[in-house]
Amino acid sequence: MGFFDRFRGGPSSRDVAKQRLQLVLVHDRANISPGVLEQIKDEIIAVISRHVEIDREGVEVHFTQDGRESRLVADIPLLGGSRKHQAR
Amino acid sequence: MAARILVVTSGKGGVGKTTAVANLSAALAQLGKQVVAVDADIGLRNLDVVMGLENRIVYDLVDVVEGRCKLRQALIRDKRLSGLFLLPAAQTRDKTAVSPTDMVRLTDQLRSHFDFILIDSPAGIERGFRNALAPADEVLIITNPEVAAVRDADRIIGLIEAEGKGPGRLIINRIKPEMVQRGDMLTTADVVEILAIPLIGIVPEDETILVSTNRGVPAVLNGRSPAGQAFRNIARRLLGEEVPFLSLTPSGGFLQRLKRLAFGGGTEGGV
Predict the structure, then answer these.
(1) Is residue A16's pLDDT more than 90?
(2) Is the terminal CB of chain B with fewer CB neighbours within 10 Å at N or C?
(3) Superfamily of domain B4-245
């Protein structure tokens, strides 16, 4: 990344390095590759949707970092099932 | 005496482990401590040449482990600095000649005679690294502000934590202030944020390191070496002193060089 890249408003090579490292380390630390993470996501969707109706497209599974501790976070939007039940 | 046993490790090769061990050992000896530097890189001996003691080796670590000599006979005393010793690695053997238990037994024998035992770990995460880590009370992880080195450091930190010796303290070596300034190098803060372990030192990229390695005289003995200054600061921090991290400012720019030419001397120490 040289002067001209910056002139065009691109991120610095330092920023790119930092982002790439943060991403790769999340997977290194958990010993879970992006492919396995996708598989986990599919299996979570399968289990949950056996019991409740969910918005499959909106499901997000990702890692968060707090210092050296990793956390697997799943965000699963429900499809208003509970309200329908109440109406019945 | 009951020595503190420190291992210097990195995962990736070529980031400055041996240089750090040579310089920290010399700096601690300068501060009046009894220090032995142990080269645990069996088969790829290098600490001896970096310290300038290669011509005085008779016995090595494997000779001690296999009982061919007494531990005392294998120790090489540095004539330039009282209190500094080297236990060289074997050059002709492979890492399997020594086990983690051997290393613990060996350093237990040294412990009562020294204030510090510094172990130079081989690169990698295999037997040699396990040997170097086994006897350690404290771990220093050295890295460069560069993606592959930081990634490997992270892996090593994980292994050290798994051994219950973590998290260790971090040395960031070969920082180029000019590159940091123009946004082309990870900053100290970036690396600390990513690795999330305490920092014990930052060392600038410095040509005097190569010159001192050429000569076999540790850079800490050169009062003008910015990296030498950085290693002296780390040694003082190891002794519990609060030494501020000096800000790394670009020193190689045209204007600075011109200024130095015009006004002479005064490199500000750099670190």
Answers:
(1) yes
(2) N
(3) P-loop containing nucleotide triphosphate hydrolases (3.40.50.300)
Rounded Cα–Cα distance for residues B265 and B252 (Å): 14
Measure A68 CA to nearest chain B CA, in Å.
6
Record: contact A1-B157, CB cut-off 8 A: no
Look at strands B84-87 and B76-77 and give their pairing. antiparallel
Spell out the residues 6+ positions from residue A67 whose beta carbon is closer than 8 angstroms to its own. B196
- How do the domains of chain A map onto residue ranges? 3-87
| B165 three-class SS | coil
| Continuous H helices in A2-80 | 3-7, 13-30, 34-49
* DSSP line for B218-252: -GGG-TT-HHHHHHHHHHHHHTT---PPPPP----
- Determine the distance in angstroms separating the CA of A39 from the nearest CA of chain B, rounded to an integer: 24
- Residue B153: what pLDDT? 98
Percent of chain B with pLDDT over 70: 92
Q: Give the per-residue pLDDT at A2.
A: 53
Average pLDDT over residues B4-32: 97
Domain boundaries, chain B: 4-245
d(CA A21, CA B194): 8
Q: Residue A25 is nearest to which of B154, B161, B182, comparing CB atoms?
A: B154
Pair type for strands A60-66 and A69-75: antiparallel
